[in-house]
Protein 1
Amino acid sequence: MSTNFRAANPDASALDGTGMKVAIVCGRFNDLITNRLLDGALEALSGLGVADDDRLVAWVPGAFEIPLASKTLALTGRYDAVLALGAVIRGDTAHFDFVAGECARGIQDAQLETGVPIVFGVLTTENVDQAMERSSDTHNVGAEGARTAVEMADLLHRFRRGD
Ligand code: INI
């Protein structure tokens, strides 16, 4: 690997969320799963130094509602990142593809339009067992999303500061 460059974030593996404000938008549908994602996310944010008072949790009915709530929070300018958590399980619905696809598209559109990182911590699985596996203590997409939120917030701050 070449070392002949200047890295924007040379210590990207040493994440520090101290002073960052993070909003979490969490789908209530399949809340057995989304509560596990939320627990993983909150624990990870604490471990990264994000203060309890700097975390907002907003519940929405389901994954389809996540993009609008996330975009609205991003537009307030109060958050360094938004973390979207949800669980779309194919076994539950014939409109899986619409709900999952629109959620993903809406989140991507919202982060590109607002310039605020909005992390896709939404499980899209075939069944509940897969969703349980990906929201466990050993593999938790909520915790992974928390790390991504802090990393992306830090990276964009560096770009804007001109580091
Ligand atoms: N919402 C989910 O978050 N996960 C699902 O698996 C799901 N299923 O199966 O339908 C789901 N549907 C609700 C949807 O997100 C909206 O809340 C609803 O359509 C109202 O707009």
Protein 2
Amino acid sequence: MRFDAVTLFPEIFDAVLDYGITRRALDRGLYRFKSWTPRDFTDDPHRTVDDRPYGGGPGMLMQAEPLDRALNAIQQDLASESLMPWVVHFSPRGRPLTHQRVMELKEKSALVLLCGRYEGIDERVLQRRVDEEISLGDFVLSGGELPALALMDALIRQLPGALNDADSAAEDSFANGLLDCPHYTRPEVWQGMAVPEILKSGNHAAIAQWRLQQSLTITADHRPDLLAQRGLSKQEQDLLAAHPPGAPQKKAVRDP
Ligand code: 9D3
């Protein structure tokens, strides 16, 4: 898979791609990444990429021409490999990113990530060149780079071979529309708080059922919208009814 980012701040992408799972996937050749800066596609000595909005108002806009030229350069670069990129513009007005959309975008062979700064981008280049607009959520950021990186991170970890066995198993157990269950590691008692007995029982069926019940209760409590969307099996309904979100679980035993 190929990613091309159009950005005034290419160094921001190093912050994610140089570390962890995303770095390992790059080393394994699972994706390629190039950044392109509209400044390299200006004609004037000041390499101007912004200008004031027609109609007045605060702030500056990114001009169409340097972005259009950057997109042409990417298109040419990819055409040599017969790749036709899907162009994503990151914008507060886009559709909020979801796991489902990540899984669909994973099937594209090449993505262009168009990142705005300032108050945004001249509408005409968006109209002419953009296939899809994506938001990260209803809060204000300073530009599209972090949303672009969020999409890359979410997508790259889904590429076959990106995760090791340990990561993959963990992924499976909660890519099921429910929030994760609580986790514990050593020590057995920490600041008077004990690890739930069942996790030390060695009864794997009982542990799996406890974890499912915890996931159901936490999801009902924190994100009832997710449960409504997903629906519950009869067994899950019974588990949740036996441990509703209102009823706090038995307090951990305190060491005297
Ligand atoms: C005054 C109106 N603002 C729009 C809500 C102006 C504005 C705010 C922030 C224009 C651009 C930006 C920069 N944000 C992004 O480029 C962005 C973003 C975001 O701010 N929140 C969530 N997702 C995204 S994706 C790109």
